[in-house]
């Protein structure tokens, strides 16, 4: 596992495993944060699309950009939250 890369997925997310496999995403190291997370995508095909973009663009400069952007997303507290309906409560 690395710091930057596609997030690990659950073993039972068969659709996502298959979709990511088409783009070679399953063949690289998984990470704690990635392109999909800073773009706040949580839908299967959107995840696969952003993960495939990462595979095509991965490198030191892109990883540094994702790392800095991830810190900004965490500090702003405006990311995807499981089970949260995005209403201001």
TrEMBL record:
It holds the Pfam family Bac_transf. Its EC number is 2.-.-.-. Residues 1-75 form the Bacterial sugar transferase domain. One of its GO terms (molecular function) is phosphotransferase activity, for other substituted phosphate groups. Keywords: Transferase. Belongs to the bacterial sugar transferase family. This is Putative sugar transferase EpsL. It comes from Clostridium tepidiprofundi DSM 19306.
